[in-house]
Task: inverse folding
């Protein structure tokens, strides 16, 4: 059972470039979310989805887009990367939005130069 | 004021000691509470949920104090392997559930 799979593990971008962070889960979880983790800031919610076709903004959504076309996949798109988006990104899922025990992917370390 | 606050530490305690740390939350309507453990450069993993009646899992005990709006984690007979960052998480009650994390408390167990 793979759980939550994130790719890539590391990425370096130049300012202005765009990219997509991939997230897939094989647990048939309805709820998926993206967090970023910065030193001293903890995990901050970027976007989340309560099911296929439904997404909503978290605490820090600016500069990011998401879509949820299938239950399994929840990609995060950086539209025009900025140095302020240098961070570690975690995708997480849970069975439903009521059962809020989160399972995390292994993270993507992103540097924007 | 942050919605969920933790003492960042580090807590540096000898092996075998008992250590406890708290996490305060500001939304009195919050309903779900969790402790996660995060090792260096790894993803957070659920350690335990926190129930109103308190709960225990081996050497770990979690408590909820709704009146004072904090949760606590107690680790007894600490092991070197307990060294990690401990994150508390609280749900934000709104139109949809959002889990808000504290910044984490760093624990270091010395031999």
Result:
């Amino acid at each position: 059972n793979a759980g939550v799979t994130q790719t890539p593990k590391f990425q370096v971008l130049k300012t202005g470039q765009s990219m997509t962070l991939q997230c897939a889960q094989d647990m048939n979880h309805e709820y998926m979310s993206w967090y970023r983790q910065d030193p001293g800031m903890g995990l901050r919610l970027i976007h989340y989805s309560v099911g296929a076709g439904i997404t909503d903004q978290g605490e820090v959504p600016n500069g990011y887009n998401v879509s949820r076309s299938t239950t399994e996949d929840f990609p995060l798109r950086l539209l025009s990367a900025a140095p302020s988006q240098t961070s570690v990104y975690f995708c997480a899922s849970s069975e439903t939005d009521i059962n809020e025990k989160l399972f995390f992917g292994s993270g993507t370390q992103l540097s924007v130069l | 004021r942050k919605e969920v606050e933790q003492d960042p530490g580090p807590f540096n305690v000898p092996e075998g000691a008992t250590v406890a740390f708290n996490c305060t939350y500001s939304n009195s309507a919050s309903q779900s509470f969790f402790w996660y453990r995060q090792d260096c450069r790894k993803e957070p993993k659920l350690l335990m949920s926190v129930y109103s009646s308190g709960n225990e899992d081996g050497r770990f005990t979690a408590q909820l104090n709704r009146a004072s709006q904090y949760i606590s984690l107690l680790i007894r007979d600490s092991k070197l392997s307990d060294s990690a960052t401990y994150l508390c998480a609280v749900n934000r009650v709104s139109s949809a559930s959002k889990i808000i994390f504290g910044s984490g408390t760093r624990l270091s167990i010395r031999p």
User: Anything to note?
Assistant: Chain A has a mean pLDDT of 93. Chain A is about 0% helix and 50% strand. Chain A touches chain B at residues 31, 33, 35, 40-45, 48, 50, 56, 58-59, 90, 97-98, 100-107 (CB under 8 Å). The radius of gyration of chain A is 13 Å.
